[in-house]
Amino acid sequence: MTSPGMKSPWTALVERFAPRMRFPYLFLVLLGLFLMDLVIPDPIPLIDEALLGVLTVIVGSLRRRQPPVQRL
């Protein structure tokens, strides 16, 4: 367990990558759906897990746009 002053490794990981993401809440929603989908059995195995996994990776890889550099 971590002490009250220390952050968990998961919290530190989220705080490190979330500010750079373009849609951090959408990523967390898709990640939650993906993890729930892995636990709940479904009639067509692996199709929806693959689609949700790929969609989560795509949304997670979108970064914030950098402002253009102005040259003098």
* Percent helix: 55-70%
Instruction: Characterize the biggest β-sheet.
Output: none
Radius of gyration of CA atoms, rounded to a whole number: 17 Å
H/E topology pattern: HHH
Describe what this molecule looks like in 3D.
Helices cover 56% and strands 0% of the residues. The protein has helices at residues 9-17, 24-39, 47-61. The N and C termini lie far apart (54 Å). The protein is flat, with a radius of gyration of 17 Å. It has a domain at 20-61. The protein has 72 residues and is mainly α.
Features:
72 residues, mainly alpha, 56% helix, 0% strand
Q: Secondary-structure map with pairings?
A:
Blueprint: H1 9-17, H2 24-39, H3 47-61
Quick overview:
The protein has 72 residues and is mainly α. The chain has a domain at 20-61.
